[in-house]
Amino acid sequence: MAISHIPPGAPAPARRLTPPGETPPAEGSISEAHQERADGGVWEHPVVWAVVVLLGSLVVAGYFVARILSFP
Asked: Is Transmembrane tagged as a keyword (predicted)?
């Protein structure tokens, strides 16, 4: 439980209001505004990589199935 230095029944301390259109500062925030970087193309799309991995695994599995079926 947090310890409050305000006696019970006392009014809450006045807050400094942030002007409209401005973002209030966050406690402990050290981040700065930054521009969003451009899309990295195919290298940043996991669906493409999932398809590549799936096709590769099917090729390897197909190799073993072909070996099993071709040697009685």
From this structure: yes
Residues 40 and 23: their CA atoms lie apart, in Å, by: 29
**Rounded-to-5 percentages of helix, strand, coil across the chain:** 40, 0, 60
Specify the amino acid at residue 65: V
Global pTM value: 0.42
17 conformational bin, left if phi > 0, alpha if psi -120 to 50, beta if neither: beta
The CA-based angle 49-68-59, given to 5 degrees, is 15
Sign of torsion over alpha carbons 27, 30, 36, 39:
negative
